[in-house]
Predict the structure.
Amino acid sequence: MANVLILIDNNYEDMEALYPYYRLLEAGHSVTIAGSTKGTYAGKHGYPIEAGKSASEIDIKRFDALIIPGGQAPDRMRTKPEMVKLVKEAFKRGLVVAAICHGPQMLIEADAIKGKKATCYISVKTDLKNAGAIYEDSPVVTDGNLVTSRHPGDLPDFCRTIIKMLN
């Protein structure tokens, strides 16, 4: 059983947080949700999700994977140093780091994407390339411990890949 951390902020893409959350629980993994502060965050489509921990309370050494859902949340998260620090530490420690849709905005901010193969939502593609990533338009792209996907339609491949890497 792996310990998985999902980062969250307001206006996250509901499916991109909830689908991996429940899929990982179903696969027997432990999932923690963290925001910049503890509390309830609202998705783009109105679904709430509870962050039981603040980013500053997280000890990344206790986790095996970190997931960054998309929506407008990554743009908010990348302005919060404690959230960016978690992504940097996750890469440094070799955790599985997975980002979907706009999630790679956090990878860019953490300076963790240069020279890596990755994908993202089409509107983030130029930013990803400018940060030094090797862009691929595929449902799921892996490069070492990095997993990226483009949009909610890629969630089955995204979650299957994360679970395979954790097993």
